Description:
Layout: H1 9-22, H2 26-48, H3 51-67, H4 79-110, H5 113-133, H6 140-148, H7 154-161, H8 165-187
Amino acid sequence: MADRSEGTLTDESAYAVxxxxxxxxxSALEEAYERWSPLVYTxxxxxxxxxSLADDVTQQVFVKAWRSHRRFDPDQRPLPAWLVGIxxxxxADLAQQRDRDRRLTERLARQEPExxxxxxxxxxxxxxxxxxxxxxxxxxxxxxxxxxxxxLTHAQISQRLELPLGTVKSHIRRGLLQxxxxxxxxxxPS
Length: 190
């Protein structure tokens, strides 16, 4: 445990924000976002080379951090370091998703045309669902993405997002209804 009494004002201030953050003080979340979202965003934009995606990653990091605030211990490490760790995990998940997408694209390119038609329909469905998901609010969108695109079970999603299983199931059911409404509107002929 670091001795905070000899630290700079900035260290003490970061430590104080971390103490309030781990106790569930919402104003500490706001302050943490104001102070360290540029750091998270910079890491994300450098890793993805996509500003919009970096915005999404930044939002995900702070949502995940807030949901896990009870597990944060400012005596073990500073809040900015903890946020950087969450950012690295979010970027690793994103890289895995991109790798899966790349492999699917390569597999489609190698398939015979007849087999590729079926796979292409699946990809088109995935694109339509993905586009429809942009209309679904968080956390339902993230839960549906984990179910559809990462293939996680309800229990795995519950564990990963630290949400009760019933809440995950409820979000999936409501999210599917919302997604159905969005996709039906999109599918109507012009």
